[in-house]
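Quick review question:
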């Protein structure tokens, strides 16, 4: 035998009774009637609502045109590549694979991007003080203290960095469009100046050291040149070696001339007497050659001067050259050493300046600041629309609230308490009476509108 399938039991749904259906329809009808009554009430007071909207529009328009205009000038900066070190290159590679991973790696390694460094410099007190002094912002902002002027400048300046591209945006807000553009440009100039002054790279430290060392060596070189020139001028020494060679050659020449003159004199004496003119001329020439040789060799009887040589001698004698050779060589060697050191340091100093210029972060202006042609604040059209909407909404709430208030019974305890409180406040505060009178006039106007609307067919 096969078993018959079990049939599911039917679900019994409670059907609403006729009385419940009637009550539900009655509630819906009552709700529709109440909604229609509210619409009818608003329609009857449409003039009041329309006048309130016009008044709100007029007030909002006046406020919108009384608010001072503001202009925004924006400049965008593209910082240079700051991936000179291996750690920065690693962070860059990680950033290329995953932005979150790269950011975490940078934070763990303690590496800050150049953009963050630029933003920190732009937000520094030094830069803000220079801008305040440059444009006399104390007078513009009406701030007596420097702290107040800095706070106002920070509120009117927005500095942000795009995390993906690294582009830095500097937006300056001011009532004067030209001053806004000028302040934005001054931020860029001050950033360049501060980064140049505060650069702490190895090239900068090397350049500073070489500059100090170069100043010292320059002074030593000047002293060596002065000492050498004074010694050479005092002793008539230009080049000891060359002077020695020249004097030896000159002595040999004079010696040869002397021997030739003596031989000539002996031949003349055999022919002529001692009083002969030619004999006497030859003797005079021999005497002069002897004197020149004695002068050249330093054996002259003439007393020497202060520098150890005869007064009429232009150059030192052969006997004095060995004595002057040691101090001359010492001074000459010192001069050449100082010249070599100065030349080497000068080359290194120029190379350090080039490296410093390469390593110093410089700002690349992507978008220079421009004088804005349109205001950024206030949004007058939006203020006018919101003012009209707020006034219309307040009028609608007033009409519905007044109707609801009038619907409350006179003997209601809450209504009686509210009337007592309102009467007490109006009696004690003078300006509330005028407002109360104005409110009564408004209620009377609304009542008249109701009566005129009801009289219409």
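Suggested answer, residue by residue:
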């Amino acid at each position: 035998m096969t078993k018959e399938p079990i049939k599911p039991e039917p679900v019994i749904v409670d059907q609403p009774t006729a009385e419940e259906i009637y009550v539900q329809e009655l509630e819906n009808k009552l709700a529709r009637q109440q909604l229609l009554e509210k619409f009818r009430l608003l329609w009857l007071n449409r003039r009041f609502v329309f006048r309130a909207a016009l008044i709100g529009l007029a007030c909002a328009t006046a406020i919108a045109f009384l608010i001072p205009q503001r202009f925004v000038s924006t400049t965008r900066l593209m910082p240079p590549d700051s991936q000179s070190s291996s750690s920065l290159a690693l962070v860059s590679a990680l950033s290329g694979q995953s932005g979150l991973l790269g950011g975490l790696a940078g934070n763990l390694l303690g590496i800050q991007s150049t953009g963050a460094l630029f933003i920190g410099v732009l937000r520094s007190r030094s830069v803000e003080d220079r801008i305040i002094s440059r444009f006399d912002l104390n007078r513009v902002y009406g701030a007596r203290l420097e702290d107040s002027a800095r706070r106002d400048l920070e509120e009117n300046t927005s500095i942000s960095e795009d995390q993906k591209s690294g582009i830095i945006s500097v937006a300056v807000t001011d009532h004067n469009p030209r001053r806004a553009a000028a302040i934005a440009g001054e931020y860029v100039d001050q950033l360049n100046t501060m980064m140049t002054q505060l650069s702490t790279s190895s090239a900068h430290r090397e350049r500073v050291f070489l500059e100090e060392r170069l100043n010292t060596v320059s002074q030593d070189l000047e002293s060596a040149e002065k000492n050498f020139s004074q010694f050479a001028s005092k002793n008539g020494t230009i080049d000891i070696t060359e002077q020695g060679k020249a004097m030896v050659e000159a002595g040999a020449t004079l010696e040869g001339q002397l021997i030739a003159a003596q031989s000539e004199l002996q031949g003349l004496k055999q022919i002529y007497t001692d009083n002969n003119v030619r004999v006497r001329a030859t003797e005079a020439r021999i005497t002069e050659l002897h004197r020149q040789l004695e002068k050249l060799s330093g054996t002259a009887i003439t007393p020497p001067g202060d520098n150890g040589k005869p007064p009429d001698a232009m150059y030192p004698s052969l006997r004095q050259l060995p004595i002057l050779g040691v101090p001359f060589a010492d001074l000459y060697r010192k001069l050449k050493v100082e010249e070599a050191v100065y030349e080497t340091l000068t080359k290194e100093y120029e190379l350090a300046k080039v490296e410093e210029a390469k390593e110093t972060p410089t700002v690349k202006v992507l978008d220079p600041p421009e004088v804005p042609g349109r205001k950024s604040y206030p949004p007058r059209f939006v203020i006018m629309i919101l003012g009209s909407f707020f006034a219309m909404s307040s009028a609608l709430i007033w009409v519905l609230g007044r109707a609801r208030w009038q619907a409350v019974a006179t003997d209601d305890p809450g209504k009686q308490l509210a009337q007592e409180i309102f009467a007490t406040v109006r009696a004690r505060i003078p300006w509330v009476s005028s407002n109360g009178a104005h409110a009564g006039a408004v209620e009377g106007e609304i009542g008249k509108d109701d009566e005129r609307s009801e009289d219409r067919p």
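Why it works: The chain has a mean pLDDT of 75. Strands lie at 71-78, 157-161, 168-174, 364-367.
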